[in-house]
Amino acid sequence: MERRKKIEVDNYNAVSAAHAEQGINFGEQEMNSRMYASRTYTQRRKQMEQDLRNFEDADSLPFDKDTAF
Fold it and tell me: Keywords for this entry (predicted)?
């Protein structure tokens, strides 16, 4: 189990370094992704309503705009 964890950490560090070369904070990106995934349906729906008011692209919305309401 310890060996698997070491491999997992090494892989994370490698990906993080590759993203850092492109100017992307991989850790922050992962935390935002996990935080977004843990939102409730109601929170995501409210965010989608705001995104629609801001004319966001349809492919960036969490739901199909025709079926969400």
Answer: Plasmid
